[in-house]
């Protein structure tokens, strides 16, 4: 959604100071692209694909995938999403693409259909549809496993148009997709095996997606077993149909078990999966999405956009807003960069430890050039840049400089930031000691204080390996002493909204 944004760079000036930033995540090892096309313009719409896509995106995000999601995508939308995902999948452990919508076979080639396709003849397919090979190429950079899931084995929806135009050859008459032989380490799952068609379903989801949602997140579920379970469930659920639906997957697996759920025993022992947002934020965002997902009120979804940036639910909400407003209305929206002085957007770092950057403007450019980057924090003293998918919480910090990309109609839509902590580097706190919490990270220390109604601040010690987090009560004033200068950071609870001091127009796709 964000793409290669070219910023109309301003001269950025900030007050010098010191900045503490801690990174929580490495580059994503499990990534997914989810596409759901239902609102076709020249043929009847489909009932389930947008539901299938939103539910699959939520499921994959919930188990730790970095998910891109696109609904009712045009030809350009699909090509752009695949181009971005190709870069994201390169070097990941597992890359998954899920597509729900129309797919057809023409001259022994499989194509996925964008919502703006017309296809009055098979010769137009190459110019209006997306070859399955594009999806296979997009996942090819993953190191361990590449997966393409297609809930797209329906009858050719353009067959009537082709016949009326006299362009329907025998090669494009049969329903379903043709079998393929993907390269080693790649699996392609069809909702119905070669030459047969799939049901769109009578409930919220299609039979195939309903079965996938049941198993894709299960722990200790080898991917081969998952496909067999999905096959059995779909065949049982479609027994009453005139043609029972039999899913099929193509490709081969190595001898070792491979799990799609990164929270299971990981493929690479000792590695931890990347969580671009905290579990608390994700669960809260999921609850909010579940509460409004069937709403037709734009402001319901705008609330999710504002409160849960960087989550898959923000992306789902933006897609829902676009659908509710219609293409004509969304044209008025543009991209902007909101800038905040002395505010640190904490957590969800894309690159562990950040990197050196000469200026805040260069840090902004680095974020703009990454499709996964939504925000950044810059250390004006150490000249250090931290790129972020989102952020877990905000804190004030002298010398911290942050930026956040958003879409809207201008400054009036710029998000304010809720600051939860005032942070002071190399300072201790006055007040009463509530005791040591046992936490060994700064964020865990803050979380413990957040849950304790008597705690209004913390002093976190860096120069010892034990007794690092000290909870405080009645604190009002940070101060310096010999210990604090060795390595203590103080944080006081607060709750206030900070408005951006500047909003810069940027150019998007």
CATH level 1 class label of the largest domain: Alpha Beta
Rg from Cα: 25 Å
Proportion of residues in helical segments: 25-40%
Structural class: alpha+beta
Question: What is the CATH-assigned architecture of the largest domain?
Answer: 3-Layer(aba) Sandwich
Number of domains: 2
Tell how many strands the DSSP assignment holds: 23
Percent strand: 25-35%
Q: Number of helical segments?
A: 14
Task: List the keywords.
single chain, 509 residues, alpha+beta, Hepatocyte Growth Factor, Rossmann fold, 2 domains, twelve-stranded mixed β-sheet, six-stranded mixed β-sheet, 14 helices, elongated, disordered N terminus
Structure, described:
Helix content is 27%, strand content 26%. The protein has helices at 49-62, 75-89, 125-128, 132-139, 159-164, 207-215, 223-237, 279-292, 298-307, 312-325, 327-330, 360-368, 442-451, 482-487; strands at residues 6-7, 30-36, 66-71, 94-100, 103-106, 109-112, 130-131, 145-151, 186-190, 248-250, 334-346, 355-356, 375-379, 384-388, 393-408, 417-425, 428-429, 432-436, 457-461, 469-473, 478-479, 488-498, 502-507. The strands form 4 sheets. Strands 1, 11, 12, 13, 14, 15, 16, 18, 19, 20, 22 and 23 form a 12-stranded mixed sheet that branches. Strands 3-2-4-8-9-10 form a 6-stranded mixed sheet, with helices on both faces. α8 (279-292) runs antiparallel to α9 (298-307). The chain is elongated, with a radius of gyration of 25 Å. The N and C termini lie close together (8 Å).
Structure in a nutshell:
With 509 residues, this protein is an alpha+beta fold. It has helices spanning 49-62, 75-89, 125-128, 132-139, 159-164, 207-215, 223-237, 279-292, 298-307, 312-325, 327-330, 360-368, 442-451, 482-487, and strands at residues 6-7, 30-36, 66-71, 94-100, 103-106, 109-112, 130-131, 145-151, 186-190, 248-250, 334-346, 355-356, 375-379, 384-388, 393-408, 417-425, 428-429, 432-436, 457-461, 469-473, 478-479, 488-498, 502-507. The longest helix is centred in the first third of the chain and has 15 residues, at 75-89.
